[in-house]
Specification:
single chain, 68 residues, alpha+beta, Alpha-Beta Plaits, 2 helices, 34% strand, binds copper (II) ion
């Protein structure tokens, strides 16, 4: 398991937080996801053997946000 921080742009409210939590949380290999609207950061704990940070970023982009 590995924890990574992703900087995310485009989140404006609690609904955005929920959208990302749901999208990333459903991914195989993702153990925990924590979204900070204030810091524009998403912290993800995941199994590197099942998914990658690039896949997680892709999912966030797919949900309509920008990763930095
Ligand atoms: Cu929102």
């Amino acid at each position: 398991m590995k924890t990574e921080q992703i900087n995310v742009d485009g989140m404006s409210c609690g609904h955005c937080v929920e959208t990302i939590e749901n999208a990333v949380g459903k991914m195989g290999g993702v153990n925990q996801v924590q979204v900070s609207l204030e810091n524009k950061k998403v912290s993800v704990n995941f199994d590197e053997n099942q998914t990658t940070i690039e896949d997680i970023k892709g999912k966030i982009v797919e949900a309509g946000f920008e990763t930095l």
